[in-house]
Amino acid sequence: MFLIQTSVPQTLYHDLWELFQMVNAAKENGASKIIVVMPYVSYARSDKEKSDKKYIPGMAIAGRLLIELLKESGTIETKVGEKVIRVNKMTRFIGIDFHSKKFEKFLSELDVRGYHLSALPLLAKYLKTKNLQNTILLAGDKGALRNATLLAGKLSIPIDSVGFVDKTRISDTEVRIDNIETEVAGKDVIIFDDEISPAATTLKALTKELEKRKVNSLRVAVTHVSITQDTIRSLQKLNMIKELIVTDTVPIPEEARRSLPLRVLSVTGLIAEKIKEISEEP
Q: Do residues 8 and 251 make contact, with C-beta atoms less than 8 angstroms apart?
């Protein structure tokens, strides 16, 4: 049984509680294998080693806890003689563009087979329809540089036209741009990252910095975007963004589609292909 449930930050706890119940119901009704499909995993940011947010000793690593709770929801107990055997039915997990490699490690450590899908081909296919001769590809931070370089290869953008942003996160609502590691004046810039948060903190700070540096035009390409009313108001003020290219790993409000320069790419094909592949396994 494939259970599909994304995790929208605004309704996160409801979404996760609903998912735990779905896994539990599938187990109780005799599913032999339960595969969770979560296009956007909020807690995939839980990576103490690479996160730009500060952690304190003893803080729970929510990404690992999420997988543990899903496993427990899908575990049955059977008695063989005097021995109780626990069998986990939630054996696989499909997601798109996890924020950290650590999350994949959690899956492996907990004996859940993970399928980490990438929206990179979708973004590349769309961007290939644009004139990219004067383009600089700018990773939202150093962590996104590897994927930005892969995207540049798919778009035939020279490696010296790929840069990244050096930033300091002061708080959840404030980011300081310390440096942009490439020359952008007079260029058509594409900001590439895996996610825009509801506050769009980095994007707001970076757009202002690029405006100061006299870029010719600006596009933004990301996998995940969670849009609230505050997000819409914030992005409407960023007039120099020519196009905001996103996927539908979380629902995109109709108001955002009407009022923002959005281009929404569907991930349904990626997910359907993986489901078909798993379904056909012996």
A: yes
Whole-angstrom distance, CA of residue 282 vs CA of residue 182: 50
Task: List the structure tokens of 49.
Answer: 């080693």
Predicted TM-score (pTM) of the model is 0.89
Distance, in Å, from the CA atom of 208 to the CA atom of 201, rounded to the nearest integer, reads 11
Range of lowest pLDDT (61-70, 78-87, 165-174, 192-201): 165-174
> Residue 59's beta-bridge partner residues?
none
CA dist., res. 84 & res. 80, Å (int): 6
Tokens for 270, please give them.
């990626």
- Give the count of domains, the chain: 2
Mode of pairing for the β-strands spanning 83-88 and 75-80: antiparallel
Residues 35 and 134 in one domain: no
Return the amino acid letter for 17: W
31, 73 Cβ separation under 8 angstroms: no
> What would you measure as the largest C-alpha separation in the chain, in angstroms?
76
Based on the domain organization, do 134 and 157 belong to the same domain?
yes
CA dist., res. 58 & res. 87, Å (int): 30
What per-residue string of b and e applies to 172-211 under the rule 16 or more CB within 10 Å gives b?
eeebebeebebebeebbbbbbbbbbbbbbbbbbbbbebbe
Q: Can you tell me the distance from the alpha carbon of 40 to that of 94, in angstroms, rounded to the nearest whole number?
A: 10
Rg of the chain in Å (alpha carbons):
21
**CA 142, chain centre distance (Å):** 16
Question: Do 136 and 49 fall into the same domain?
Answer: no
